[in-house]
Design goal:
This protein is of the alpha+beta class. It has 19 helices and 34 strands. The strands form seven sheets. Strands 1, 3, 8, 9, 10, 11, 13 and 14 form an eight-stranded antiparallel β-sheet that branches. It is flat. It starts with a helix and ends with a strand. The model is unreliable at 1-16, 352-359, 615-623, 665-673 and 678-699 (pLDDT under 50).
């Protein structure tokens, strides 16, 4: 009995606990003084990482003299008193999180903070600002942990699982810190005390007899994954630093999944699952205490390059070409797209009660962007969001018009406001018949506005430039393309395809500036600039007030008097009489009385492939259309090409426009001096300068926000670059496209990224900007080139050998069914072996077979 009692007592005495944390409380903390030696003197970089959990209030986390961090309501904020203005940077901590891992870094470029949920499932991001000093010195500095050594707030009442300091920094958005030790300057793991396990050996002096409760066992599995259907991948739980692991597949639908070892920290998973959402769990055990974290998996069928193969080809054409989530190298854009998509899902105002004005929240088609999110990620919450968006948009914006039969009425909803692609996908997937209100409404709308903005405005009706620019006509083209692709009635699809083919000639090609044209608006031109210009019908005299004709014009030049109408009349100057008078060789004929005067430049060149803006704005004349107008129009051209409605002329339109933006010197400019607060960084000028909104991107950028605003105007302009490259252009167009994409979407990650971006990241009340930034990412596919993009189905067949041994006596046939990774099936019924199944798409990889007698 004594022996037994002794053994029980020993067991209790030496029982292991999971990892421990330093518990913050009033008067309980750790202190030390940093060494007065290198590397603490004249440091050019330092990285601080810690895990904080179960806080009950606010307070100081770390105080190292002029670097300090605090837990505040809703965020963690760190301040550098070394830098000018003592910049404070914050990472927002969602209310749902009570256990986070934080990384803070300073180097000679920037001062930055990031955080993650302890599971790794959510990246919270964080702010960064420019550093203003060349080094910092932490030597001989008091270090206070969970204590405010400089006074003010007390230490935060929370658990601090570990605190580590490194002499190196890593790129923003690098792999998150984990439970694995490794701080080379300081490493406090708080396993019952303040021991420093780094080479520095600077142990903390603990005050107030603090306690060291168990650290929650939270398996670190990382963010939700999108994987290729029927493939292998390797999830990891290794950062948990546990004693043992156990992986399981959880939830419906059932699937065939196998682990190379279900007890490995990072097993290879053989994934035989089709399109959709699934989950795995990692159970980690530390000293007998278990914790479980779920890893969400989106399964998406793709080709080898990651190009999504949508289960329904019609929906695929409506969505546009897409890379699966996580494939592109500009990873920050990917995460920001998903984060902002989740923000709109949680927005109960605009999805639940959509505004009914024409400038409503779905302006540039956020519904379409959410549908793309679903098919790119395989995650069902985005499908739910897309459907909710489309349903509310229809019920509050379209339903009354549909019921009244006025969807084709004038002055209702401009094409840019209609967001009709997302609505058409919703009508298509619900199987609404041709006579239903939605299709009747959408068809009437497409008919009216395609006629208004396109069919009435082509060269066959005397037009020489786009009516109100290319934006509305681009959306009208896309509305008509949606009918041609998705309408339930074959005859309607055929009729709209024919109308599109006609307008590719009359409008898209007819209004494009081409080599050899005599149209004045297609040439490089200059204007008189300031002043007021007047002319009279039948008079050869042009007069000005406040003008400088002598500096602009010479006798013999061709000029045009432009009064805002779409005039193309050219005249020859007989004499430049003064700064305020020009005499023409022939009288001016027209109704205009005031306007602008343009002259062809000496040795003028045609803006080959471009389009002129319709108005007489001097800042636009000779420079083609507004930047995002052109991008929207080229998106429409790409969709017509990809739907195979018309390919020859459409390819020429796209290629000529792509070459125009590549070769026109006014559009392509290298880096410019416009640095914002990043004094030692050049914020690269984007390859497609905006001559309308906010002026030229090369001027006036006094802050980071200004740079974002300038670049944001270009986020719809990239389509022509990618498709031109896909159609066979050389490397320069790809480099130009990557330059533009990285300027828009790069932040610090990906080719050409410079820390600045144009993609909107604020939670604006207007959903317009989400659709604008995210609804058209086809460039990421097209930039792969024709061979790698592999966007055309590759047909194949498979022969299945069989015998009817063991089948029912009456069995005389065998049905072979092949299920592709995207969930579609192909089947054949045979009376003899082998049985050949056709209609397979080999781009998707391995398919599953089923035989049934």
């Amino acid at each position: 009995m004594r022996l037994a009692l002794f053994m029980i007592a020993s067991s209790c005495l030496f029982a292991q606990a999971p990892y421990r944390s330093l518990q913050g409380a009033s008067g309980k903390y750790g202190t030390a003084t940093l060494p007065n030696t290198t590397p603490w003197t004249n440091m050019t970089q330092v990285r601080i990482e810690f895990r904080l959990h179960d806080w009950t209030s606010t307070g100081r986390i770390l105080d190292a003299g002029s670097l300090l961090c605090s837990k505040n309501a809703g965020n963690i904020t760190c301040t550098s008193f070394y830098d000018s203005g003592s910049p404070a940077i914050s990472t927002t901590i969602p209310a749902s999180q009570s256990d986070v891992i934080v990384r803070v870094q300073w180097n000679t470029t920037m001062w930055t903070i990031e955080s993650w949920a302890a599971t790794g499932a959510t990246y919270n991001g964080g702010q960064f600002v420019a550093a203003t000093v060349s080094n910092i010195s932490l030597n001989n500095t008091p270090l206070d942990v969970l204590h405010n050594g400089s006074g003010g707030s007390t230490g935060v009442p929370a658990g601090l699982a570990w605190l580590r300091v490194y002499s190196t920094t890593v790129a923003r958005d690098s792999a998150m810190p984990t439970n694995i030790t490794g701080g080379n300057l300081l490493d406090y793991e708080f396993e019952g005390g303040g021991t420093d396990s780094s080479p520095t050996g600077l142990n903390l002096t603990m005050t107030g007899s603090p306690t060291y409760p168990s650290t929650p066992v939270v398996p670190i599995v990382g963010e939700e994954l999108t994987v290729r259907s029927n493939s292998t991948f390797t999830p990891t739980c290794a950062g948990t630093n546990a004693d043992s692991y156990k992986w399981r597949q959880q939830g419906a639908p059932p699937l065939s999944v196998s682990f190379s070892s279900a007890t490995a920290s990072a097993p290879t998973v053989t994934w035989n699952a089709g399109f959709g959402q699934y989950s795995l769990t990692c159970e980690a055990t530390i000293n007998g205490v278990k914790g479980v974290t779920s890893l969400t998996i989106g399964s998406v069928a793709t080709n080898a390059a990651g190009v999504v193969v949508v289960p329904d080809s019609t929906i695929g054409l409506m969505l546009g070409d897409m890379l699966a989530a996580g494939v592109q190298e500009w990873a920050w854009a990917e995460r920001n797209r998903r984060t902002m998509g989740d923000y709109w899902i949680a927005d109960t105002v605009n999805y639940t009660n959509a505004f009914t004005s024409t400038e409503a929240q779905n302006y540039y088609d956020s519904c379409l962007a959410q549908y793309q999110n679903y098919y790119r990620t395989g995650l069902t919450r985005f499908q739910t969001a897309a459907r909710a968006c489309a349903d509310k948009w229809y019920s509050q914006i379209w339903a009354a018009q549909a019921t009244a039969g006025t969807c084709g009425a004038s002055n209702w909803l401009a094409p840019r406001n209609a967001s009709i692609q997302g609505l058409m996908i919703r009508a298509y997937e619900t199987g609404e018949l041709a006579g239903g209100l939605k299709w009747t409404c959408y068809t009437a709308y497409a008919n009216y506005y395609f006629d208004l903005y396109v069919e009435q405005r082509g060269t066959d009706n005397g037009y020489t430039s786009p009516y109100f620019g290319l934006r509305e006509s681009g959306y009208a083209f896309m509305a008509a393309t949606g009918i041609a692709v998705a309408h339930p009635t074959p005859a309607t699809r055929t009729a709209y395809a024919a109308r599109l083919v006609t307008e590719m000639t009359n409008y898209a090609r007819g209004l494009q500036c081409l080599t050899g044209t005599t149209r004045f608006e297609c040439t490089n031109a200059y204007t008189t600039g300031a002043g007021t210009i007047s002319a009279s019908n039948g008079s050869a005299i042009i007069t000005g007030s406040g003008t400088g004709f002598l500096s602009f014009f010479t006798a013999g030049q061709s000029i045009a008097f432009y009064d805002g109408a779409d005039s193309n009349k050219q005249y020859v100057i007989q004499s430049v009489d003064s700064n305020t008078q020009v005499t023409l060789t022939t009288p001016m004929v027209g109704t205009g009385t005031s306007g602008e005067l343009y002259a062809k430049a000496v040795a003028s060149t045609v803006l080959n492939g471009g389009y002129r803006y319709e108005s007489g704005d001097a800042s636009l004349f000779g420079y083609g259309d507004i930047v995002w107008h052109s991008g929207i129009f080229m998106e429409a051209m790409v969709r017509i090409y990809r739907a195979a409605i018309e390919t020859t002329l459409t390819a020429s339109v796209i290629q000529d426009y792509g070459n125009y933006v590549l070769t026109n010197a006014a559009r392509i400019t290298p880096a410019f001096t416009c640095t914002g607060s990043f004094g030692n960084l050049q914020a690269r000028r984007v390859v497609y300068s905006n001559y309308y909104a906010n002026g030229d991107t090369g001027t006036g950028c006094s802050s980071d926000t200004d740079i974002q605003g300038q670049r944001q105007q270009n986020d719809l302009a990239v389509d022509a670059y990618g498709m031109t490259y896909l159609l066979g252009a050389s490397a320069p167009i790809l480099a130009a496209g990557d330059n533009l994409w990285s300027a828009m979407m790069g932040e610090w990650i990906g080719t050409g990224a410079d820390g600045q971006y144009g993609m909107l990241t604020s939670t604006s009340s207007n959903g317009k900007f989400y659709g604008q930034s995210c609804r058209n990412w086809q460039y990421l596919v097209h930039r792969l080139g024709s061979t790698n993009a592999n966007i055309t189905p590759v047909s194949a067949s498979v022969s299945v050998s069989y015998t009817l041994t063991g089948a029912p006596p009456s069995a005389a046939k065998m049905r072979a069914t092949v299920t592709l990774p995207n969930g579609t099936t192909a089947a054949t019924t045979c009376t003899s072996s082998p049985c050949t199944v056709t209609g397979l798409d080999t781009r998707q990889g391995t398919a599953a077979q089923m035989r049934e007698a």
